[in-house]
Amino acid sequence: MPRPRLVSNWRRAPRMLSVQVAGAAVAWGLLPPDQQTAILAWVGFPAERVPAVLGALFLLGRLTAQAKVGDQP
Q1: 34 belongs to a structural domain
Q2: What pLDDT is stored for residue 63 in this prediction?
Q3: How far is CA 46 from CA 21, 55, 58, 63, 71, in A?
Q4: pLDDT given for residue 26 in this prediction
């Protein structure tokens, strides 16, 4: 099995949409459950859909070409 290594443009990770979505997912997970519930009730979004939406956003961010994150230094 090949040894894992960082991508060549790892320093640009904060600009990557997939990293931003992952950060938002982590921040969401760190909120207390009552705050998550209150936010979802305010937005009118069902809680059971949150994982699916975050997953779809992550995939979209990973597959989207982003000029600010190209492999060129």
Answers
A1: yes
A2: 87
A3: 19, 15, 19, 26, 38
A4: 95
Is 68 in a helix, a strand, or coil?
helix
Kindly state whether residue 4 falls inside one of the protein's structural domains. Answer: no
Of 7, 3, 15, give the one whose Cα is nearest residue 71: 7
* Phi, psi (deg, nearest 5) at residue 6: -70, 150
What are the distances in angstroms from CA 65 to CA 11, 26, 29, 31, 39? 17, 23, 27, 31, 31
pTM of the model: 0.75
Q: Tell me if 5 is assigned to some domain.
A: no
Q: What is the pLDDT of residues 41-68, one digit of tens each?
A: 999 999 999 999 999 998 998 888 887 7
Query: Has residue 73 been placed in a domain?
Result: no
